[in-house]
Design brief:
Bound molecules: flavin-adenine dinucleotide
Radius of gyration: 20 Å
CATH topology of the domain at 7-49 and 105-173 and 276-353: FAD/NAD(P)-binding domain
Number of strands: 20
Oligomer: single chain
Mean pLDDT: 95
Number of helices: 9
Largest sheet: 8 strands, mixed
CATH architecture of the domain at 7-49 and 105-173 and 276-353: 3-Layer(bba) Sandwich
Shape: globular
């Protein structure tokens, strides 16, 4: 075991960072979890957490896994419709006894279930990482509030716009996937009953999905193809967040009504980006996990799942390994081919079902 008195800093309290903090603190490491927001950021919408993600959670935190099952809806049906509303394909999903389901669930109860497993003493909110320095013996993280932290390993779980990434692989560009996306959550239990995931296949420059997230709520995602202006490149949130009515009008009336019934504060909008596969996941004592390491198109719904898999694998290697250097080399050898494959196939599917060009941002 890498010495349990090792001090491990994690930057970013998203799902990847919080899960890692819970696993490592349970293993006895000295964990500090740094988050730039003043509290846990539970905003966001519904998530399809595929079976692999549920398995990665079950292996490290059966309690969190059970809480997520209780909070959402197991996927029971994928239904594909054209823009007239005709169903052209339906794929029921069934589970063997004791098989973990793929879950449709809001991001908030996922984060809360994971945070419940992290000791309060590990949490450092309002800490925005600015820079990182390291020697062969230790790594130091510097924060915008003037504080610093020194330890044995720093993990960047700080998402697609990762600051930590500059200190592992400098100069990584975001690549615009060609869509502006709105997502929302609305009180409704009839449009997508009982674990239904509805897809309106891409056409006429739009794409949409709707799914049950349990508790009589429906999540929707509405994508429009849009070129970015030069000043928008690399920006996550557009300056104009209104959904263009002429685009919404391309959906059938019943689907459009669900979106129109959503309270504005339950809607988020952002441009859709991925990053190219990184040539390495760590440098010295600094490692990347989750979106910071491999942000990808949502087309295969592997985003959150791959962050959970990263956390589980890293906790396992830290539990078994002798030195940080050996742990990181073993971790990278296992995870890099897997996350590269997720990135490659997610982008391929985006290109096949979506727009054929991307813009470097
Ligand atoms: C449109 C869309 C749909 C998606 N749908 C799905 C889906 O159905 N299923 C799925 O599995 N995935 C989906 N994803 C992807 C999924 O949401 C992400 O992969 C996942 O949330 C990434 O988690 P993370 O913890 O790695 O990063 P994040 O959730 O981005 O967390 C990063 C954290 O780091 C903090 N931070 C950032 N910078 C700093 C700093 N300098 N200092 C300190 N803290 C910092 C942030 O505040 C944040 O809390 C989707 C993504 C999009 C855009």
């Amino acid at each position: 075991m890498a010495h349990s008195n090792h001090r491990i800093g994690i930057v970013g309290a998203g799902t990847s960072g919080v899960y890692l903090a819970s696993l490592l603190s349970r293993q006895g490491f000295q964990v500090s979890l740094f988050e730039k927001s003043p509290q846990l950021r539970t905003d966001g919408c519904g998530i399809l957490l595929v079976q692999a993600g549920m398995e990665a959670l079950q292996a490290g935190s059966p309690e969190a896994c059970s809480a997520i099952i209780a909070a959402g809806a197991p996927v029971k049906l994928f239904e594909f419709r054209n823009l007239r509303g005709d169903v052209f394909n339906a794929e029921p999903v069934s589970y063997a006894e004791k098989e973990l389901p793929g879950m449709l669930v809001h991001r908030k109860p996922i984060l809360e279930a994971l945070l419940a497993e992290v000791p309060q003493s590990c949490l450092r909110f309002g800490a925005e990482l600015e820079s990182v320095s390291q020697t062969p013996e230790s790594v130091v993280a510097h924060f915008s509030n003037g504080q610093h932290w020194e330890g044995d390993l720093l993990v960047g779980a700080d998402g697609i716009l990762s600051k930590v990434r500059h200190f592992v692989v400098p100069g990584v560009n975001l690549y615009y996937l060609g869509d502006l996306v709105w997502r929302g959550v609305v009180a409704d239990s009839t449009f997508c009953p009982d674990g239904t995931f509805l897809v309106y296949a891409r056409g006429r420059g739009i794409y949409a999905n709707f799914f049950d997230i349990g508790d009589d709520r429906t999540h929707w995602g509405f994508f429009i193809e849009k070129n970015q202006l030069p000043h928008e490149q690399g920006i996550l949130v557009p300056s104009d967040t209104d959904i263009p009515p002429q685009e919404l009008a391309k959906l059938p009336d019943d689907a459009r009504a669900i979106i129109e019934a959503t309270p504005p504060e339950q809607i988020v909008s952002r441009y859709s980006y991925d990053i190219d596969p990184l040539p390495q996941l760590y440098s010295g004592r600094v490692l990347l996990i989750g979106d910071a390491a491999h942000a990808k198109s949502p087309s295969r719904a592997r985003g959150m799942t791959s962050g959970f898999e990263d956390a589980l694998a890293l906790a396992r290697y830290l539990g078994e390994g002798d030195s940080i250097a050996g742990v990181l080399a073993d971790y990278q050898a296992e995870r890099m081919p897997i996350v590269h494959e997720y990135q490659r196939t997610s982008r391929e599917i985006s290109r096949k079902i979506g727009r054929s060009h991307r813009q470097a941002a």
